[in-house]
Design a protein that fits this description.
Helix content is about 5%, strand content about 35%. Strands 1-6-5-4-3-2 form a six-stranded mixed β-sheet, with no helix packed on it. It has one helix at about 60-65; strands spanning about 10-20, 25, 35-40, 45-50, 75-85, 100-105. It is built from one helix and six strands. The chain has one domain (about 25-105). By secondary structure, the protein is mainly beta. β2 and β3 (about 35-40) form a beta hairpin.
Length: about 110
């Protein structure tokens, strides 16, 4: 799927589901799961978990704690929030993606 710059920005959740086709998941030595692949809405780059910013309510500590194995002991299924980071504003000044986000379930 090629990137579609005509998609209009909308900050919305696309829900959740298992790791989509074309996506990859990695686990670092501390057990943190990261995911990446094409945005299902605009086709640009997307990944998770999102990097914290000073303006966000999400802190690096909360991402690490929520993503650790001991925080999610259920059958090695991890939920990771992924966001579009395609680098285009999609009509919203200052945005770095189309605004869509979703939860990706990764079975380890």
């Amino acid at each position: 799927m090629a990137h579609d710059e005509a998609v209009k920005f909308e900050a919305e959740s696309l829900g959740s589901g298992m790791l989509p086709d074309g996506w990859s998941a990695d686990v670092d030595v501390t057990g943190i799961v990261t995911v990446s692949g094409p945005c299902p809405t605009c086709g640009g780059d997307a990944w998770g978990p999102p990097l914290p910013t000073p303006e966000s309510a999400v802190t690096a500590e909360s991402l690490v704690v929520a993503n650790r194995p001991e925080s999610q002991p259920h059958d090695q299924l991890r939920r990771v929030r992924a966001e579009c980071h395609c680098g285009f504003e999609h009509g919203n000044d200052g945005a770095d993606g189309c605004g869509r986000w979703w939860m990706v379930n990764v079975r380890l």
